[in-house]
Amino acid sequence: MPFGQLPLRAGASFKPEHFAAISAARQPVAFFEIHAENYMGAGGAPHAQLRFIRENYPLSLHGVGLNIGSGEPLDRAHLARLKHLWERYQPESCSEHLAWSSHGGIYFNDLLPLPYTQASLRRVIAHVDEAQNGLQRRLLIENPAAYLRFEESTIPETDFLEAVARATGCGLLLDINNVFVSARNQGASPQAYLDTFPLDLVGEIHLAGHFAAADDQGEPLCIDAHGSPVIEDVLALFDRVIARTGPLPALVEWDNDVPRWPVLLAEVSKVQERIGLAAMHKDAAAA
Amino acid sequence: MAWRLCTRMRLRRKGEKVGENLMQNWQDEFARAVLDRTLPPPPGVIAPNTKGAQERFAVYRNNRMVSLLGALEARFPVARKVVGDEFFKAAARQFIAAHPPRSPIMTFYGDAFPEFLARFEPAQGVPYLADVAMIEAARTRAYHAADAKPLGREALAAVPCEALTDMCFVLHPSIEILSSPNPIVTIFAMNWGELDLAPIIDWHGEHALIHRPEFEVEVRRISAGQAAFLRNLAARNPLGTAAGAAHAAEANFDLAGNIALLFSGLAIAVTSEGGSIPA
Q1: Which of A96, A222, A258, B130 is the most exposed place for a label (fewest CB within 10 A)?
Q2: pLDDT top residue among B165 and A283
Q3: Which residues of A touch B28 (CB under 8 A)?
């Protein structure tokens, strides 16, 4: 049973440049997702557009600034802003990242990694508890894209995420592009990662594109750029996951070099087709 | 037994404290290394091969810098056009180093950029640059300002003429008034595509009204009198005081015309001394 209330179908990142196209006619998109921090102004076009989206589609709020992976206390003012946004729009889902983004009063505008130790596990559990209590709702926590590892890590990432979820009651947001990127960057197997991932705790899937390069030693270095179509290798991993779980809400993320709406919509349709096939196979297997 | 339990608890609490301190320390080092390119990657980060850690750590540095530069470029396209991409990037990098974001709300990052440009030595040859950037910073704030229903003409009819001088006004939350010794509204409009690019022969100061009537932000040139009038009203001075300041700044200030403007978009509430009149 998936966490959360998003439809078990494909959704899209909402970008303001697509609003004219989206509002002109009903779109074959199951839900839209926004970055919470982009809607923390008081009013104007951003909120007018978000009101339209909220009134016509299921909505997912995806935050980047809550700093859950930090050794510092949570920013209570930011938690209050997130709560205010949630109360204003009543989204079907609210998610954040297993990462940190602020330290020493400076916001880094990136999702930075943390070592996976008993100490960091306790800290993340405490932060997720505080966030969920503050918001009075369950969060989904997303797995990160990794470019390196920490020597001091003693807990595998999948175990870490599962431990956080079981201790706090939060759900997980499985970003399959991040799984692929992290595995490529660390010479690991994305399939092995997914085989140990607690799929029963997944409330949403993210799919996105990445930039594939190599470091100066010739080792693969993929950057989680969110600026291109989802590659077939990532879709194949997605097929593998939903073959086991059945249909899940799946978001096509495209945040940079954003294409025209028909291009993004085609990506959403591609993903929806995969979900449809998985549902058929599951029904056939059950019959 | 109780003694052993207490000792275990004490050691566990100490271990947790040490754990917490270690957590803070690795994060201090990681953060410092992201901010300072001259530092090596923090100890304890590893890549598939040892030499790769430097380049992989650089991804975080690059992500941060590229995204912050992108934010400033998006917020200040006219300033960027005026000085060119290379100069803008160099100025932006120095601004980022001196004034890193302090909030996850990146929408308003760069509020301090106009003031930085005003003091930026290499930009002294472009004296209007900072003021043009001020318009752009105000535009973002106006774009995201709270929604508010403006007063209509019927509200003007509801106020007795003789009471008008003592009235105070609440201006639309998007409104900002900017003044410059340079023709910044003209320069802005030329670079925004609202006016044809042409040499400015008659170089004089201009005042700008930034206002968002509905969803689109307007940047309008206003007179010295209008600027004084609106500034006084924004400071919650009564209409009489604002009118006096306006006439002092501009001999033929059109008071009636500007009162009409208050009641057709610029003001959202009118209050008498000691009370308020519903709009």
Answers
A1: A258
A2: B165
A3: 103-104
Q: Taking the CA of residue A113 as centre, how many other CA atoms within 13 Å lie in the half-sphere pointing to its CB?
A: 26
In 3D space, the residue among B59, B68, B77 whose CA is nearest the CA of residue B95 turns out to be: B68
Q: How far apart (Å, rounded) are the C-alpha atoms in residues B66 and B60?
A: 10
* Domain boundary assignment for chain A: 10-286
What is the spatial distance between Cα A12 and Cα A33, in angstroms, rounded to a whole number?
6
Q: How far is CA B3 from the centre of its chain?
A: 61
Q: For residue range B126-161, list pLDDT tens digits in order.
A: 999 999 999 999 999 999 999 999 998 888 888 888
By the CB < 8 Å criterion, does B275 face chain A?
no
Q: In whole angstroms, what separates CA B26 from the centre of its chain?
A: 34
Cα separation values, B276 from A70, A224, B155, B169, B269, Å: 48, 55, 13, 10, 8
The model carries a pTM of 0.91
Taking Cα atoms as reference points, which of A113, A108, A83 lies closest to residue A97?
A113
- Is the Cβ–Cβ distance between A47 and A41 less than 8 Å? yes
B-proximal residues of A, 191-250, CB under 8 Å: 215-217, 219, 221, 223
Q: What is the pLDDT of residue A231?
A: 86
Choices 2.10.25.10, 3.20.20.150, 3.10.450.50, 1.20.1250.20: CATH for A10-286: 3.20.20.150
A192 CB-near residues (< 8 Å, 6+ apart): none
**Res. B1 pLDDT band, cuts 50 70 90:** very low
3-class DSSP state for residue A161?
Answer: helix
B213 touches chain A (CB under 8 A): no
- Provide long-range contacts, Cβ within 8 A and 24+ apart, for B53-56: B53/A148, B55/A215, B55/A216, B55/A221, B56/A147, B56/A148, B56/A185, B56/A215, B56/A221
pLDDT class of B204 with cuts at 50, 70, 90: very high
How far does the CA of residue B209 sit from the closest CA of chain A (Å)? 18
Pairing of strands A59-62, A32-35: parallel
- Asked if A147 and B104 come within 8 Å (Cβ–Cβ), the reply is no
> Which chain A residues are Cβ-neighbours of B56 within 8 angstroms?
147-148, 185, 215, 221
Q: Compare CB distances from B45 to A72, A150, A217 and report the shortest one's residue.
A: A150
Provide the shortest C-alpha distance from residue B87 to chain A (in Å): 23
Site of tokens 């640059």: B129
Residues A96-139 have pLDDT tens digits of 999 999 999 999 999 999 999 999 999 999 999 999 999 999 99
